[in-house]
């Protein structure tokens, strides 16, 4: 019995000497949720024969009912002008638009504007209400026959209105 008592006393002493691993004292601040929702941005892409152009002018306003997109490099320029938006109802709108193409021989020469080609141009808005939606998406395209070669101009746009 004496041995049992010694084993029990040793066991209690060993248990009382075990080191407790405590959590380190680290101050933590409450986690702030990071917003993963990106704010929409206006995006415009203009291509001539599938070659991207630099956007040099982008103006659009609901107040004046206008949209102006100009894309150019040193030798070519594309201009889209949309004006006089009028919305008949929730599913119909009317506007005037024109897509023009210009070239020049070098960066100092004057631009030579080709006649507007209404028969070969098209413009679409993907929205039912471009005069009321916050994001207005669309595209335009036109082709010209210049020196017996076909020149395709295509563009896509997504415009964010506040």
Structural description of this entry:
- With 162 residues, the chain is mainly beta.
- The chain has one domain.
- Helices cover 10% and strands 49% of the residues.
- It has one helix and ten strands, in the order αββββββββββ.
- The strands form two sheets. A five-stranded antiparallel beta sheet has the order 2-1-10-9-8, with no helix packed on it. Strands 3-4-5-6-7 form a five-stranded antiparallel beta sheet, with no helix packed on it.
- A hairpin with a 2-residue loop joins strand 9 and strand 10.
- The longest helix has 16 residues.
- The protein is elongated.
- The N and C termini lie far apart (89 Å).
- The mean pLDDT is 79.
Instruction: State the share of residues found in helices, binned by percent.
Output: under 10%
The coarse overall form would be elongated
Rg of Cα set:
34 Å
Q: What percentage of the residues does DSSP assign to strands (E)?
A: over 45%
Ranges with pLDDT <50 over ≥5 residues? Answer: none
Biggest sheet features = 5 strands, antiparallel
Number of helices: 1
Count of individual beta strands? 10
SSE succession: HEEEEEEEEEE
Distance between the termini: 89 Å
How many domain regions? 1
**What is the typical, i.e. mean, pLDDT?**
79
């Amino acid at each position: 019995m004496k041995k049992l008592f010694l084993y029990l006393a040793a066991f209690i002493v060993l248990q009382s000497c075990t080191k407790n691993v405590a959590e380190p004292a680290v101050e933590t601040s409450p986690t702030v949720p990071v917003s993963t929702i990106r704010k929409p941005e206006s995006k415009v892409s203009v291509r001539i024969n599938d070659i991207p152009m630099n956007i040099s002018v982008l103006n659009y306003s609901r107040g004046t009912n206008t949209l102006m997109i100009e894309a150019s490099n040193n030798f070519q320029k594309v201009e889209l002008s949309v004006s006089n938006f009028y919305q008949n109802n929730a599913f119909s709108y009317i506007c005037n638009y024109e897509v023009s193409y210009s070239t020049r021989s070098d960066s100092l020469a004057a631009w030579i504007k080709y006649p507007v080609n209404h028969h070969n141009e098209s413009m679409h808005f993907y929205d039912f209400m471009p005069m009321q939606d916050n994001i207005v998406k669309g595209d335009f395209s036109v082709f010209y026959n210049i020196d017996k070669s076909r020149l395709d101009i295509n563009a896509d746009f997504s415009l964010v209105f506040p």
